Amino acid sequence: MSATTTSPAPRPLPPHARVVVVGSGFSGIGTAVALREAGIDDFVVLERADGLGGTWRDNTYPGAACDVPSHLYSFSFAPKRDWSHVYSRQPEIRSYLEQVAADSGVLPHLRCGTDVVSGRWDDDALLWRLRTSRGDLTADVLVSGAGGLVEPHLPDVPGTGTFAGPWFHSARWDHSVDLTGKRVAVVGTGASAAQFVPELQRTAAEVVVFQRTPPWVIARADRAYTEREHRVMAGVPGFLRLARGVQYWSREARLRAFIGGGRLRGLFEKQALAFLEQQVPDPELRARLTPDYAIGCKRVIVSDDYLRALTRPNVQVVASPVTEVRPHAVVAADGTEHEVDVVVYGTGFRVMDIPLAHRLTGREGRTLSEEWERSGVQAHRGTTVAGFPNLFLLLGPNTVLGHTSVVIMIEAQIGYVVAALRAMRDARADALEVRRSAQDASNARLQAELTGTVWNAGGCRSWYRDEQGRNFTLWPTHTVTFMRLMRRFDAESYELRAARRVPVPA
């Protein structure tokens, strides 16, 4: 069957559900599929928007695509044989998620247009009490699939709201604004900007790119799959698994450059500088685009056309951050003022400062964001937090990757969640909460592993780390290590309680 792009008709909320899943991106849909396969049908997926897709529903800017190969950026249990390109585009990824949801029988569990307003753990009843934009319900277990690429980050620049023309963030692209023949300011040079700048360059009269720090850029080598390749993928047993395996292990091999450095990192930097020289013949412009920190310290840009776009006559690179926005101009730190008609912010996201963290109140009366303000953004195995029973975070702290597909991490976490639910069932427990000692110990090990990596010691400032320099975002080593870690539910790290409030042996 073919997936539909229209939203399911609104269904009423149940008064209670065994499991409530928040969000309908890869995390939410993957969890829903796993719950059904585990024989758990008493669940709902709450989605604040009018359709599923998560990041791949919200980011519709021109050129939006994935920088991980298509076969790797998909569920292992739902391979797609006919990806159009080696690197899939946003509409195709969203369509894929819709197809998986439809084929897996998830759509009847989906409640769109349902925003979680607040959630409070009831330690007497041992359940979550949720208020939503469509009514209240309770849940035994709450799974957050909200993700980090949700809330746009806008820079704290004086005058942002005074700009007289259209302005918007790339994750909230205003398609009603015709940029043809316009003078467009682009603030930021991250992964999103690297995708939409080449598209803007083709239509805008002038594009002024404000660059705080030049990113490392490597070639994407993207192309369309041929009909013959599609036939082989569909008809040759095991070929699709082989293709995914090759993509997986080639990216895991690259990781040594980030966690070990040495010759391999030097080789990658040499290749990236050669690519820069090939794409940007002008030595003055090339100097402005040459990073002064180790490759991988910030997110590496994977693009075939970004650097080339910066060399076009209608593109200007201002190697200076924005200090002020005026009604008709943007001012850089170097003192230059640039008159523009439109401002587009490609300035990333508030990765772990998600709205849900401000709305969930745990056992001790603190919200998740307040808990993280006290202890730093952390979780046990990136999934559970002390003081928040029966709450599971997907793509939580230190589960993001700098080298390969986060879908791998999501699937490993989902397996852990299902194992936790089985442990609760077998122990006849109503509440499960990670012990703070276990959480502290696992995070101490994790931070120690991050110490010598390029993400911590590469000589740059990035969104991977907080203001104190603590890396709260990335997993420090190979994904296979994380998968092995999550394969067994460590019941000894948890306190299990029944409604009678007596500890249950693990």
Automatic annotation (TrEMBL):
Keywords in alphabetical order: FAD, Flavoprotein, Oxidoreductase
Protein name as catalogued: Predicted flavoprotein CzcO associated with the cation diffusion facilitator CzcD
Gene3D superfamilies cross-referenced by the UniProt entry: FAD/NAD(P)-binding domain
Pfam families, per the entry: FMO-like
Species, as recorded: Geodermatophilus obscurus
PANTHER family tied to this protein: FAD_NAD(P)-BINDING DOMAIN-CONTAINING PROTEIN-RELATED, L-ORNITHINE N(5)-MONOOXYGENASE-RELATED
InterPro entries, per database record: FAD-bind_Monooxygenase_sf (IPR051209), FAD/NAD-bd_sf (IPR036188), Flavin_mOase-like (IPR020946)
Oxidoreductase keyword on record: yes
Family from the record: Belongs to the FAD-binding monooxygenase family.
Molecular-function GO terms, alphabetical: flavin adenine dinucleotide binding; N,N-dimethylaniline monooxygenase activity; NADP binding
